[in-house]
Amino acid sequence: KQEVTQIPAxxxxxxxxxxxxxxxxxxxxxxxxxxxxxxxxxxxxxLLLIQSSxxxxxxxxxxxxxxxxxxxxxxxxxxxxxxDSATYLCAVRLRDSNYQLIWGAGTKLIIKx
Amino acid sequence: NAGVMQNPRHLVRxxxxxxxxxxxxxxxxxxxxxxxxxxxxxxxxxxxxxxxxIIDESGMPKERFSAxxxxxGPSILRIQQVVRGDxxxxxxASSPIGLAGDSEQFFGPGTRLTVL
Lengths: 113, 116
Prior knowledge:
The structure holds two protein chains of two kinds.
Chain A: E1 4-7, E2 10-14, E3 19-25, E4 30-38, E5 44-51, E6 56-59, E7 62-67, E8 72-77, E9 86-94, E10 101-103, E11 107-112
Parallel strand pairs in A: 2-11
Antiparallel strand pairs in A: 1-3, 3-8, 4-5, 4-9, 6-7, 7-8, 9-10, 9-11
Chain B: E1 5-7, E2 10-13, E3 19-24, E4 31-37, E5 43-50, E6 53-56, E7 65-68, E8 75-79, E9 88-95, E10 106-107, E11 111-115
Parallel strand pairs in B: 2-11
Antiparallel strand pairs in B: 1-3, 3-8, 4-5, 4-9, 5-6, 7-8, 9-10, 9-11
């Protein structure tokens, strides 16, 4: 059974720092992995989607990597800003059921001005 | 092209009442997925529907919960005789392709259900 874990559960850093959020999954038979952002009381914004054949994806100050063999993904945020404060969720799409997303519980990020 | 729409955004019900959550997929999308997010937890898959068909309801509780996606109109997630444990955010997603292909799911803003 696929399980997705995100560490740390919460993170508070000063503005301007580079930071890394971690996501691990137990079964490497995934179709893709996706990082989302969730603002309090609001919906989900897709940030980056990495196909199983890819190693990384970049969008602006965000870079996500994927290492299927070790069951890990990282989300790197460069030069963090207070507007980056949110909960970051990762989700894997199963290969044998290629529509179901299995989610981590998220990392709550606070960027202090 | 409007995104996935959900209404209401907030819903308050007393124990024992019924809750109806609506989801209108993106234009051109015929596949809908419902997820539930309990407080401080990740989302959990509930059900996957295509027009007029339930494809996979393995994540939906057997009692009190039902879902439909009629030929015309939005998808409806219905919770009968709500209990406090049903309080959660319910997210709907849609995609243009279901079981095959490189289709991404696009999420709505969610409905936050509070059961008093």
